[in-house]
């Protein structure tokens, strides 16, 4: 089994209009840059995109927005993007704002075959509107539904040719849970190694969750907010 | 004369004890990190998947794969760990974070918090705030006492959409410290040179005075 044989363009022939796609990353950290550019070129439209954020105007998921390929975003925070605001106000774009922990749990549940769950997060807020409420030990909880994607695009650091994945630092974020919740999961990685080269104890995403591995381009990584200190100054 | 923000930060840091796991929100709460005593072993949690945030990096240490929840480049402290978003919110929702310090737009006398949306304005999202207010063991809100128009931000009932209902344990402003108890909102501390009468005048919410009312130190 070698999951590195198909190019992203071949894989994306299966991506239909109106699909739901899950895209890993937090801000611009740990996003599948090459795959997003390829989705842009694929022209698939009316996509429902599940991702914590929606990129910036000229990078990340912002590219799909600019190309008018997104019908709906399911996210926890979308504030870094002017095109997003324009499309939302003009009614071109729909958004479902979901608390970040609820978003993570909806994806985890989707990947684990759990259709819905109850959480206290969002009780008494606009998030609770229209959702069934249950009382456990005197406290209110709202029902939240699982999310499964037709395609999932994640970014990892290393993969072997079987699709075992290792992530790096905070570029991990939503990627491992999203990898479990895609009918087809594509992992974009910085390095592909032979089967057996990754230590089984250190694998974050087991190969069973991954259908395709493509090589990314680490020179494409961007920093959203470059903050530094000067020598000798702590904090 | 120190600024309102400085006073809030100086008071808020006193909530943090040695050994705690703490989540600091964006804005004023982030400034609290700089005031934590250097001999404390405190792990700062970042929702995107880091327990043990360090200072900003030197120019030579910048790593695009290492950011905080505000998307700023950071470093790690010794003992830090990385994890995915589900683990991150298991920490938060499962009651493993000792204190969350968040900014606020409005707090009600019932301990409701509104800090994520203003109707009619572009809504950016709640991020992890709704999870934090439900899940952290202790929720501390830090905000200026009145709005820039001079209006009390401490309301009888919040006018803005809520982040959480009856979730705030303690509110710290530049003028006062309030606790939210079974008996309602209680004034615990007043800032130096501030009178209870002045606080009453600037607070729409009803509150009682603690028997041990103190001056903020």
UniProtKB/TrEMBL annotation, chain A:
Pfam families: CoA_trans (PF01144). InterPro entries: 3-oxoacid_CoA-transf_A, CoA_trans_fam_I, NagB/RpiA_transferase-like. This is CoA transferase subunit A. GO terms for molecular function: CoA-transferase activity. Keywords: Transferase. PANTHER family: ACETATE COA-TRANSFERASE SUBUNIT ALPHA (PTHR13707:SF60), KETOACID-COENZYME A TRANSFERASE (PTHR13707). It comes from Ureibacillus yapensis. Gene3D superfamilies: Glutaconate Coenzyme A-transferase. It comes from the Bacteria. The keyword Transferase applies.
Automatic annotation (TrEMBL), chain B:
GO terms for molecular function: CoA-transferase activity. The keyword Transferase applies. PROSITE patterns: COA_TRANSF_2. Transmembrane segments: none annotated. Pfam families: CoA_trans. Keywords: Transferase. Belongs to the 3-oxoacid CoA-transferase subunit B family. Heterodimer of a subunit A and a subunit B. This is Probable succinyl-CoA:3-ketoacid coenzyme A transferase subunit B. It comes from Ureibacillus yapensis.
């Amino acid at each position: 089994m070698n999951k590195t044989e198909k190019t992203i363009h071949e894989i994306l022939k299966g991506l239909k209009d109106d699909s739901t796609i899950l895209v890993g990353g937090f801000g611009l950290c740990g996003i599948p840059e090459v795959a997003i550019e390829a989705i842009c070129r694929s022209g698939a439209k009316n996509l429902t995109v599940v991702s914590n954020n929606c990129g910036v105007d000229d990078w990340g998921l912002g590219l799909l927005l600019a190309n008018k390929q997104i019908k709906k975003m399911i996210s926890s925070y979308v504030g870094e993007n002017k095109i997003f605001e324009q499309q939302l106000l003009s009614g071109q774009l729909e958004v479902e704002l979901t608390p970040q922990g609820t978003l993570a749990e909806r994806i985890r549940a989707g990947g684990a075959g759990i259709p819905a769950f109850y959480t206290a997060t969002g009780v008494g807020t606009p998030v609770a509107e229209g959702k069934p409420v249950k009382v456990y030990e005197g406290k209110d909880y709202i029902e939240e539904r699982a999310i499964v994607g037709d395609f999932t695009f994640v970014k990892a650091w290393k993969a072997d040719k079987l699709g075992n994945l290792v992530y790096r630092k905070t570029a991990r974020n939503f990627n491992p849970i999203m990898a479990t919740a895609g009918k087809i999961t594509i992992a974009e990685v910085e390095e592909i190694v032979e089967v057996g080269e990754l230590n089984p104890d250190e694998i974050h995403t087991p190969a069973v969750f991954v259908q395709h591995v493509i090589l990314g381009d680490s020179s494409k990584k961007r920093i959203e907010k470059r903050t530094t200190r000067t020598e000798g100054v702590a904090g | 004369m120190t600024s309102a923000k400085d006073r809030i930060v100086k008071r808020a840091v006193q909530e943090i004890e040695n050994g705690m796991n703490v989540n600091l929100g964006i804005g004023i709460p982030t400034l609290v990190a700089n005031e934590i005593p250097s001999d404390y072993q405190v792990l700062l949690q970042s929702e995107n998947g880091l327990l043990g945030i360090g200072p900003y990096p030197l120019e030579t240490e910048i790593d695009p794969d290492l950011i905080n929840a505000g998307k700023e480049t950071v470093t790690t402290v010794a003992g830090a760990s990385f994890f995915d978003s589900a683990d991150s919110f298991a920490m938060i929702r499962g009651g493993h974070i000792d204190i969350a310090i968040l900014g606020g737009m409005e707090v009600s006398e019932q301990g409701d918090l509104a800090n994520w949306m203003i109707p009619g304005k572009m809504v950016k999202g709640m991020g992890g705030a709704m999870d934090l207010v439900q899940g952290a063991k202790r929720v501390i809100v830090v905000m200026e006492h009145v709005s820039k128009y001079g209006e009390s931000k401490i309301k009888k009932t919040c006018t803005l959409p809520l982040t959480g209902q009856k979730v705030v344990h303690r509110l710290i402003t530049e003028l006062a410290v309030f606790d939210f108890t079974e008996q309602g909102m209680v004034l615990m501390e007043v800032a130096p040179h501030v009178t209870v009468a002045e606080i009453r005048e600037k607070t729409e919410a009803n509150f009682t005075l603690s028997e041990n009312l103190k001056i903020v130190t």
